[in-house]
Design a protein that fits this description.
The complex is a heterodimer of chains A (about 425) and B (about 270).
Chain A (H helix, E strand, L loop, with lengths): L11 E8 L5 H7 L6 H9 L3 E8 L3 E8 L2 H13 L5 H7 L1 E4 H12 L11 H15 L5 H20 L9 H13 L6 E5 L3 H12 L4 E6 L2 H10 L3 E4 L3 H4 L5 E4 L10 H10 L5 E5 L16 E5 H67 L5 H27 L7 H11 L9
Parallel strand pairs in A: 5-6, 5-8, 6-7, 8-9, 9-10
Antiparallel strand pairs in A: 1-3, 1-4, 2-3
Chain B lengths: L1 H25 L2 H29 L7 H20 L7 H17 L16 H35 L12 H34 L7 H22 L4 H26 L8
Chain lengths: ~425, ~270
C-alpha cells in the first residue's frame, strides 16, 4: 500500500462480504477471521493495489472495505490473499456480495444502524464496528476516506437510534420478559430471580436478567445436582423444589420451566405469600409447556403472571412495530449515503486543488528567489511585502479556477471540470513529483 | 391588571397542555423540554397574578370560587414543579398540565369580582390557614394523578393488552413511589391545615370545633388519608389498593372544597 498518498479522483470504494443472509453457517465459518484483526490487516497492508482498507468479522458476517484504482483486480488479489487456502472459487462467486461506491456506503450504513442484522435493531453491531475500526486505525490501514466513512457510519447509527424506535422493542421472548419486569419494578438491580427448573429456556431468560443487573439468582430443581450446576453459572444458590414456597417471600421474579405435567403452584399458595411480602410485587414468568402455574395467580393484587403465549404476543406486536420503524430508518440511511457521496464528490477535486497550489507556490518561490538575488539593500519589511504581493497575485489568479472546480452548479460533470483545469495548468504532464 | 395576568397565564397553561399532549403522542424529547419550559413560564405568570390580586384586594385571594380554584391550580402546578427538580416521572407532566388547565377553566368561568372581606375573615390566620390547606390539596391532587396513572398502567399489564399507556407511562414501582411521596407531604400539611383552622375557629367563633359542614368534610378526608397512611405503614398496602384509596380520598377533598360550598352551605360559605 502507498504511504501518505493523496486520494485521487478515480478511486473506487469497494465492499465485499458474506453475511447470514447470503451464506449458510458452514460457509461463514470458513470466511470467519478467527485469529483477530491484526494478521489479516497486515496481509492487506502489504498489497500494492489497495489504498485504504478495513475489515469486520462477527459471528454473522465478514466484511471488507477498501479503496483502490482497479476494483476487479484488487478484489481478486484480496480474496486470494485472505481466503485462498480455505475457500473454493465457486464459493467465492456464489456467496460474496460486492458493492461499489454509493452502494458500498449505503450497505455500511445499513450494517452500522443494525438494519442488516439478524435481529434488526440490536445494538451490539455498533460496538463490533467500532472495535474493528480501532484496529484498522491503529495499524493505519484506513486513511482519509475510510476514516470519514466509518465515523459517519457511527453517527448515522446514532441518528437512527434517536430518531426511530427501532431499538426500543423487545423481539425475543426473554427480552420481552425483561422489558415487562422493568415496567413492573422500575430498576432491577435490587431484585432477585428464582428459576424453577433448570432447562435451557430458563437459562436464557436468566442470562438476560443477569445482564440487566439483578441482584441474585436462585435455582430450584427436582434434581439438586442440576440446580447447583446452573446456580454456579450465575454465582447464585441452589434450593430444593420443596423450598419453592418459602423462597417466594424472598425473590421478586420467578421463571418457571419445569417438565411437570400438572400445576406446581396455585393461587391459594401464592395468596398468603403476599401478606408475608408486605405486598411487594411478584412477577411470574411461565415458559413451560404444559404450563406450571395457575392462571388465577394473575388475579391477585400486585402479582403478575405471563405465560409463553402472552410473551409471544408481546414479541409479535413489537415485531410489527419495528418493521414500521425500519422503513423510517432506511430512509435516514439513504439520505446519509447521498450526503456522504456528495462529500466524496468534493473530495475528488481536492487533489487537483492541492496540486494547483503546489504548482503556483513553486513558481512564486522560484521567481522571487531569482529577483531577490539581484536586488540589494532591501529591509526585512520590504522583503516581506514583496513576498506578500507574490502570494496575493497567485491567490487571485487561482480564485476563479478554484471556484469552477468546487462549483456543483456548473453543468459539466466533476470529472470534466477536473480534466479542464488539469489540462489548462499542465498538471497531467507534471510527472510524479 | 391582575385579571390580564390571569388571562395570559390561562393562555400559556393552554399552550403547555397542548404541547404536553403533542409530546405524549409523539414522544419526542424536543417537544417535552419545550412543554416543560412553557409550563414553567405559566407557573411564574400565575404566581405574579396571585401577588397582584393580593395587592389589589388587600387580602389573600382565596375568598370566592374564582380565587380558590385558581389558587388550587397554582399549588398543583408548583407542587409538580417543586419535585420535578428532584426526580422525573415519565409523562407525569402531561396529566398535571391537563388537570391544572381544567382547574383554570373552572376558575375562569366563575365570578371574578373582588369582594370586601367579611369581618370574620379579617385575621392573620386567613393567609396561614388557607395557604397550608391549599398546598396540601395541591400535593394530594398530584397523588390522585399518580394513582390514576397507576391504575391505567396496571390495567394494561394485567390484561396483557398494551395500548396507549404501556409504553408511555413509567413503571408501576415509580408510580407507587410517587403516590407515597405525595402522601407523605400532603397528609402532614392537611393535618396542619385542620389544626390551624381550629385554632382560628377558637378565636373567631369561640370554639375549636363547630361541626360545620366544611369541618366535617375535612375530617372525613383526614380519616380517609389517615387510613391509607396507616395501612401503608403497617401491612404494606401499595399498588392498586393504595391507588384506589388515593382517588377516593381525593374525591373527598374536592367535595370538601366545592360540594360543601355549593350544595350544603354552612359557616365557611362566604362568597360564590
Amino acid at each position: 500500500m502507498l504511504e501518505g498518498f493523496i486520494p485521487m479522483g478515480n478511486d473506487t470504494i469497494v465492499l465485499l462480504g458474506v453475511n447470514h443472509k447470503t451464506a449458510p453457517l458452514e460457509v461463514r465459518e470458513k470466511f470467519a477471521l478467527t485469529a483477530g484483526y491484526i494478521e489479516p490487516l497486515t496481509i492487506l497492508k502489504k498489497l500494492e493495489c489497495l489504498k485504504e482498507c478495513y475489515l469486520l468479522s462477527t459471528c454473522n458476517r465478514v466484511e471488507l472495505l477498501f479503496t483502490c484504482d482497479d476494483p476487479l483486480g484488487s478484489r481478486k488479489e484480496v480474496l486470494e490473499n485472505l481466503f485462498g487456502s480455505q475457500v473454493t472459487h465457486s464459493e467465492l462467486d456464489n456467496f460474496i456480495y460486492h458493492y461499489e461506491n454509493e452502494d458500498a456506503v449505503h450497505h455500511l450504513f445499513m450494517v452500522s444502524s443494525s438494519l442488516d442484522s439478524m435481529i434488526v435493531g440490536e445494538s451490539q453491531i455498533l460496538g463490533q464496528l467500532k472495535e474493528a475500526f480501532r484496529h484498522a486505525s491503529e495499524l493505519k490501514t484506513s486513511g482519509l476516506v475510510l476514516n470519514k466513512l466509518l465515523h459517519k457510519s457511527f453517527t448515522v447509527a446514532k441518528r437512527v437510534r434517536t430518531e426511530t424506535k427501532i431499538g426500543a422493542s423487545a423481539v425475543s421472548i426473554s427480552y420481552a420478559a425483561v422489558e415487562l419486569a422493568r415496567k413492573i419494578f422500575g430498576k432491577l438491580s435490587d431484585k432477585k430471580v428464582l428459576l424453577v427448573g433448570a432447562g435451557e429456556m430458563a437459562e436464557l431468560a436468566a442470562e438476560h436478567l443477569v445482564g440487566q443487573g439483578v441482584e441474585e439468582v436462585v435455582v430450584a430443581n427436582r434434581t439438586l445436582e442440576n440446580a447447583v450446576k446452573l446456580a454456579q453459572r450465575f454465582n447464585g444458590r441452589a434450593v430444593a423444589l420443596e423450598e419453592m414456597e418459602e423462597q417466594l417471600t424472598l425473590v421478586d421474579i420467578i421463571v418457571s420451566s419445569t417438565g411437570a405435567s400438572g400445576l406446581i403452584l396455585t393461587k391459594e399458595q401464592v395468596k398468603p405469600v403476599m401478606r408475608r411480602r408486605r405486598n411487594r410485587p411478584l412477577f411470574f414468568i411461565d415458559i413451560a409447556v404444559p404450563r406450571d402455574l395457575d392462571q388465577g395467580i394473575n388475579e391477585l393484587d400486585n402479582v403478575f403472571l405471563y405465560d409463553i403465549d402472552d410473551l409471544k404476543n408481546v414479541v409479535e406486536r413489537n415485531k410489527a412495530e419495528r418493521d414500521l420503524e425500519a422503513v423510517k430508518a432506511e430512509r435516514i440511511v439513504g439520505e446519509e449515503a447521498i450526503k456522504f457521496c456528495k462529500w466524496l464528490d468534493k473530495m475528488e477535486v481536492t487533489p487537483t486543488i492541492v496540486e494547483l497550489r503546489q504548482v503556483t507556490d513553486g513558481i512564486c518561490r522560484g521567481e522571487m528567489e531569482k529577483t531577490l538575488s539581484r536586488l540589494d539593500g532591501l529591509s526585512e519589511e520590504q522583503l516581506k511585502s514583496i513576498e506578500r504581493m507574490a502570494q496575493a497575485i497567485s491567490a487571485k489568479l487561482l480564485h476563479h479556477p478554484m471556484q469552477y472546480l468546487k462549483n456543483e452548479q456548473v453543468s459539466h460533470e466533476t470529472k470534466t471540470r477536473i480534466n479542464t483545469v488539469r489540462t489548462m495548468f499542465g498538471l497531467n504532464n507534471r510527472g510524479n513529483g | 391588571m391582575s385579571f390580564l395576568l390571569f388571562q395570559i397565564s390561562f393562555g400559556v397553561y393552554f399552550l403547555a397542555t397542548v404541547t404536553y399532549m403533542a409530546f405524549f403522542v409523539s414522544q419526542k424529547g424536543g417537544i417535552r423540554s419545550l412543554a416543560r419550559n412553557i409550563f414553567l413560564v405559566a407557573g411564574i405568570l400565575h404566581t405574579l397574578h396571585i401577588i397582584m390580586r393580593c395587592i389589589e384586594a388587600g387580602h389573600t385571594p382565596i375568598t370566592n370560587q374564582h380565587e380558590t380554584v385558581s389558587f388550587f391550580a397554582w399549588s398543583v402546578a408548583w407542587g409538580y414543579l417543586s419535585f420535578r427538580w428532584r426526580y422525573t416521572v415519565k409523562n407525569f407532566g402531561t396529566f398535571v398540565s391537563l388537570l391544572t388547565f381544567i382547574l383554570m377553566i373552572i376558575s375562569f368561568s366563575s365570578i371574578k369580582e373582588i369582594e370586601p372581606l367579611v369581618p370574620a375573615l379579617q385575621s392573620w390566620w386567613l393567609p396561614i390557614h388557607a395557604f397550608i390547606a391549599i398546598i396540601a390539596d395541591g400535593f394530594l391532587a398530584l397523588g390522585f394523578i399518580g394513582g390514576t396513572m397507576y391504575l391505567l398502567q396496571e390495567r394494561e399489564l394485567k390484561k396483557k393488552r398494551f395500548g396507549l399507556f404501556y409504553y408511555r407511562l413509567p413503571s408501576l414501582d415509580a408510580l407507587d413511589n410517587l403516590n407515597n411521596h405525595c402522601l407523605t407531604i400532603g397528609f402532614p400539611l392537611l393535618t396542619l391545615g385542620i389544626i390551624t383552622g381550629s385554632v382560628w375557629a377558637k378565636q373567631a367563633w369561640g370554639n375549636y370545633w363547630q361541626w360545620d359542614p366544611k369541618e366535617v368534610g375535612a375530617l372525613i378526608t383526614w380519616f380517609l388519608y389517615a387510613a391509607l397512611v396507616h395501612q401503608r405503614f403497617t401491612v404494606g398496602w401499595r399498588g392498586r389498593r393504595a391507588a384506589i384509596m388515593t382517588i377516593i380520598a381525593f374525591i373527598s377533598v374536592l367535595f370538601t372544597m366545592w360540594g360543601v360550598t355549593n350544595f350544603v352551605g354552612g359557616l365557611h360559605t362566604y362568597g360564590q
